[in-house]
Design brief:
about 150 residues; 60s Ribosomal Protein L30, Chain: A; about 25% helix
Length: about 150
């Protein structure tokens, strides 16, 4: 989702192994957030066509294009990454959180973009909110709240 309404906020809930990619153009004050669950759509091409935002390899490029359509330019875009925890995988058998984080970084790097901040890993679920007018990014988990 991409938004240019200054009074709005974009929020996603319960990031476990999923990743939220937050993009914000500091000049235009527009932002976007993608909450993806898996790194690569090749495991389910039909689902990729139906729900491209479910996968990093499809969702991130789409969000970049949506930001560009609203006038965002690379030098003004700031990116933050949140999530990628090992929730319900404490033995690291699947490492979905780590795989998701690596996929996001790889895809961003291919577009000459990199994160200025991240709150990733661990074993907690996170909810993240982007205030579109300011670019402030707030994370909550249980009764804790912090900004990145």
């Amino acid at each position: 989702m991409v938004c240019a309404e200054g009074d709005d906020s974009i929020k996603t809930f319960a990031l476990g192994s999923c990743i939220a990619v937050i993009m914000y153009d500091v000049k235009l004050r527009l932002g976007g957030m993608l909450h993806f669950a898996l790194p690569d759509s090749s495991i389910d091409a039909d689902k990729g066509r139906a729900r491209p935002g479910y996968f990093a390899d499809l969702g991130i490029p789409l969000m970049i294009e949506d930001m560009k359509k609203l006038g965002a330019v690379r030098q003004n875009v700031r990116i933050k990454l949140v999530g990628g925890a090992a929730v319900m995988d404490d033995k690291g058998i699947f490492d979905i959180g780590k795989r998701n984080l690596l996929a996001a970084k790889r895809i961003l790097w291919k577009s000459s973009l990199g994160a200025i901040a991240e709150d990733t890993g661990g074993d907690i679920s996170r909810t993240v909110t982007l205030a579109v007018g300011t670019g402030d990014t707030t994370i909550t988990s249980g009764d804790r709240q912090w900004e990145i």
